[in-house]
Amino acid sequence: MTAEERLAQIRGLAPEKSPSVRVLSAATAHSDCRVAMLALATRTNLDRLCEGTYFEVAFGQDPQAFQRGQMFERRVKDHGYGALIQLLREHAGFPLTSVRIEDLRSRTPPNMEGLRQRAAETKRLLRRIARNAPDAPNIIDGAVLTCSIAGKVAYFEADSLAAAANGRVHVVEIKSFPYTDGRCDPDKLGAASDQAAWYALLGRRQLAEDEISPDIIAPDGFIIVAQGLGLTPTLLPQNLDARIRRAERLLETTPDPRQILAQVPNDLQFPAMNVEPEQRVELLEEILDTVGTAYRPACMRDCGAARLCRSRAHESSDVALCGNEIVRQLPGIPTLSRALELSEGLPAAPDEKHVAAGLSLAATVYDRALRRGAL
Fold this sequence. Notes:
Elements: H1 3-11, H2 21-28, H3 34-42, H4 46-49, H5 63-92, E1 101-103, H6 112-130, E2 139-141, E3 144-149, E4 152-157, E5 160-163, E6 169-179, H7 186-209, E7 220-227, E8 232-239, H8 241-251, H9 257-263, H10 277-291, H11 306-315, H12 324-329, H13 336-343, H14 353-374
Parallel strand pairs: 1-2, 6-7
Antiparallel strand pairs: 2-5, 3-4, 5-6, 7-8
Helix pairs in contact: 7-8, 13-14
């Protein structure tokens, strides 16, 4: 049995989740969690395995926000991409004439075969841009970039790739969140910039495979957002250098299928959705016990098993419940219960003495503050 067949066997009849940039970014940000890496390698949708149970986590975009996003993207691309071209001319030195647009979405089927076709065409067009071909496009709409995840090719669909007059390619992300009085939601802008950085990195890797300088992909991305509460587009240039480097480091942590398979028993398999919800949770807990997890509060943002892992962390009084800063302050202390014991003066092991002294001092200061408050 090949590694790919074995990974498919581990997923079994569990729901499948194709990698996207968001999926890849979320999973690789939890590279120390073996279950997250196993789910990424096997394409298992952890977001759905707790459906119908107390541990279900609500994910998905608000329907109104989704509709607003679609309307905004249409406005950016209507009339021959008029708004997009104008913004690129104002902010990116885009040419005043000879605008050449390749809309890959409109000429391929909306399925896996279409993604493969668009990926091949994106690669060809990037080569033509890099070589300054006279008929190279200025805008690629619906570009698809590829990357190997656990030994299997994954396809990532970008909003668009824009080539300015100097022959460099800038990643464009179209988002409908409002930009008002020179400000917008920093978390949303950061997430959009992270997405753009991933696309820039994947584009650079593809060019490098063809022995073309990856610097063709510029470190400056363009995030197009809505001016005010309306749908008037505006463009925010963002330097992506640091985010690209971070994405590259994260990509290096994607799982090696051979290492993963060596760490899991032969009979391990994710539960199917037709299993009763409570039994499904029991089977999932067995996997968590066998493979191992690394819960922290940030998991609640993007992992469907986070509530289950949080419950388990509460049962074991895991220090990780308090977040990374507390974990760093308590090196070598496995549980909050043990931290409490050390703060109360119980004998410390040799590798606990430094932390124990700090906990004891903190407990003394805390008790003194309580007494003063009581007076």
